[in-house]
UniProtKB/TrEMBL annotation:
The keyword Transmembrane helix applies. It is a multi-pass membrane protein. Coiled coil: none annotated. Keywords: Cell membrane, Membrane, Transmembrane, Transmembrane helix. Signal peptide: none annotated. It is found in: Cell membrane. Belongs to the VirD4/TraG family. It comes from Subdoligranulum variabile DSM 15176. This is TraG/TraD family protein. Residues 579-590 have a biased composition (Low complexity).
């Protein structure tokens, strides 16, 4: 429209110009040219009222910048597909190459739901490490691929990658807390049972002490996971006294079940059953007006002072307090009242042991159903137990596991707090392991951990990987923006007054990415921050765009047979306490003498339970 108006004006002006007498045309032409020249000069000299911000200076107000291609090549490794040879974490990918980080540093991934954690990062990283194993296999078919534990609320990782892993020589296991009849078995007491069995057989006093102490440590870990952890902000009971005494009670009963239970009875459900049967007052002896709990009466027949020490904190109180403590412990154990779950936790598969996990490249898929959070604590406990076993294995191997191992902990903030999580991160790294922790935002940590523990977890992750942030997660967006730092820019302004233009320029700092820009990051674009280096923008898109995986095979895992659950009852426990000594192998009189002094306790127990104890 403007062109038409200008054209019409020029045409009209030209027609008027033709009507001017010839003598005046030259003067009019000069006048019009002068006006036109003045207008052009004015337009050329006019400056905008603002100066466009540009990078400038020498980092006076911040030198943050994203990596240039040359920097990327110095920090990360570019690997052609088909030439994978070293286990690593993926930080970028294309149709023909991988961009990987081969350091020993743990990774914290921050990404909201729908950001593509599984499809863009997990599945490609699993595939890369599977192909490392394929290309490094020896004559026995065992490669150098990293063993992996993959915790997820969904079954898609297993469905998509299991065939590829098997093709590349991996041992693939599934601990499925959703479909327990198609799962490996995980007995919470298996390490306690192993150490108690070794303690029974051992003749050397020092080694016996080591085995028993190890069994105690695992029993305490179990009790802490059941009662609640000090690092959890939602630990449950308001009374620290009831928490601690209930923790001691469960610790003692775990050791009791492991020592005196028969084959098939040494599991956590037997602990629950004992507490149920011992929750109540015992019938007092004739002529005795002091009422005791059934737990206290049973404890009189126990000869193991360690077990008595753990349980006595409960029985030493008055009977009402004792019963309250027993009720508190019982309420914590209610999570095991699950007919399906009993099929998984009352026996154990040795395939899950740390030795086999390291001996051969192994992928353990740990499925923790998001629709049944009552089973999530088993996932946390499995991670803790496996880590303890790997640390012990590494110490026997000179301080480092012979095979690297990776933990992929998805939805980390939704799982119950892992006992001693702050020490595990550094312990795993120094033993050859790496952890990839995934959360939706930083606030998700605070669901299970207090602020101090959260900060320690974040500090232990030297690599931060994030994509777009949820619009409502302003704290997370602000925190990441601050970590990216500021860049130095040249900015300024200009003003015009009385035909004169003045301008000012200055250097100032500006966030490399503002919180608002963090929200607007495009899908498949990720930012990688590694300690000691500038951040990097990278591209990680859906695996199907550049990977050709082995065809997904239908899950042919045969369902486990129904297991008839055996329980250690108080009746059988009394018989065991009356007939089986707590220390069957006593190499010297020094260890036998204390047992001869316990006859009085046996006689008291015989009076309480006629026919069940032999004084």
């Amino acid at each position: 429209m403007l062109v038409l108006v200008i054209g019409y004006a020029l045409l009209t002006g030209f027609q008027l110009f033709l009507q001017i007498p010839m003598d005046w045309r030259l003067a009019v032409s000069k006048f019009l040219l002068a006006i036109l020249a003045t207008a052009v000069i004015e337009l050329l000299n006019r400056q905008p009222l603002a100066v466009r911000d540009v990078k400038a200076g020498h980092g006076q107000h911040g030198d943050a910048h994203f990596m240039e291609p040359e920097e990327v090549k110095r920090v990360y490794q570019e690997v052609q597909q088909g030439h994978e040879a070293q286990p690593a974490m993926l930080v970028g990918a294309s149709k023909s190459t991988w961009l990987v980080d081969t350091s020993d540093q743990s990774v914290l991934m921050v990404a909201p739901p729908g950001a593509g954690k599984s499809t863009s990062l997990y599945i490609p990283t699993i595939t890369y490490n599977a192909r490392v194993n394929l290309h490094t296999q020896d004559a026995q078919g065992i490669g150098q691929g990293a063993s992996m534990v993959l915790v997820s609320v969904k079954d898609d990782l297993y469905t998509i990658t299991s065939a590829e892993l098997k093709k590349c020589g991996y041992r693939v296991l599934k601990l499925d807390l959703r479909n327990v009849f198609c799962s490996c078995h995980f007995n919470l007491l298996y390490r306690v049972n192993i150490e108690i069995d070794a303690w029974r057989k051992e003749q050397d006093a020092k080694q016996r002490a080591v085995h028993y102490a190890t069994a105690e440590r695992y029993a305490k870990v179990i009790a802490s996971a059941i009662i609640g952890n000090t690092g959890s902000v939602n630990s449950g009971d308001s009374s620290e006294y009831f928490n601690e005494t209930a923790r001691g009670l469960i610790t003692g009963l775990v050791l009791l079940v492991s020592q005196y239970g028969q084959d098939g009875e040494r599991h956590i459900v037997s602990v629950f059953n004992l507490i149920v049967e011992l929750a109540g007052a015992d019938n007092p002896e004739k002529g005795n007006t002091v009422q005791k709990s059934r737990l206290a009466a049973m404890l009189e027949g126990v000869t193991d002072r360690r077990i008595k020490g753990y349980i006595s904190t409960t029985t030493s109180a008055d009977i009402r307090t004792t019963l309250n403590i027993v009720s508190s412990a019982l309420s914590k154990l209610l999570k095991f009242v699950d007919a399906e779950l009993e099929q998984l936790i009352c026996t154990h598969d040795n395939d899950l042991d740390a030795e086999q996990f390291i001996e051969r490249p192994t992928a353990i898929f740990l499925i923790a159903p998001d629709e049944n959070e009552t089973r999530h604590f088993l996932a946390s406990l499995f991670v803790r137990f496996l880590t303890d076993d790997l640390i012990a294995l590494a110490e026997r191997q000179g301080g480092h596991c012979p095979r690297p191992f990776y933990y992929f902990l998805d939805e980390f903030g939704n799982f119950p707090a892992i006992p001693g999580v702050t020490s595990l991160f550094s312990a795993i790294r120094s033993r050859g392991g790496r952890i990839l922790v995934a959360v939706q935002s930083y606030s998700q940590f605070l669901l299970k951990y207090d602020k101090n523990v959260t900060e320690i977890i974040k500090d232990n992750c030297q690599i931060l990987l994030n994509t777009f942030v949820s619009p409502s997660a302003q704290d997370t967006a602000t925190s990441i923006s601050k970590m990216l730092g500021d860049e130095t820019i040249l900015t300024g302004s200009s003003s015009r007054s009385d035909g004169k233009t003045t301008s000012s320029h200055q250097l100032m700092g500006r966030p490399l990415m503002s919180p608002a820009q963090m929200v607007r990051i495009q899908r498949d674009t990720w930012i990688v921050e590694k300690a000691g280096y500038a951040p990097m923008k990278t591209h990680l898109e859906g695996y199907w765009k550049y990977l050709s995986l082995a065809p997904q095979e239908q899950d042919t895992t045969s369902e486990n047979d129904y297991l008839e659950i055996k329980l250690l009852s108080t009746e059988s426990l009394r018989q065991a306490l009356g007939s089986a000594p707590a220390r069957p192998h006593a190499p010297s009189a020094a260890t036998r003498e204390p047992r001869r002094k316990l006859g009085a306790s046996r006689r008291e127990a015989a009076a309480l339970y006629p026919g069940k104890f032999n004084p």
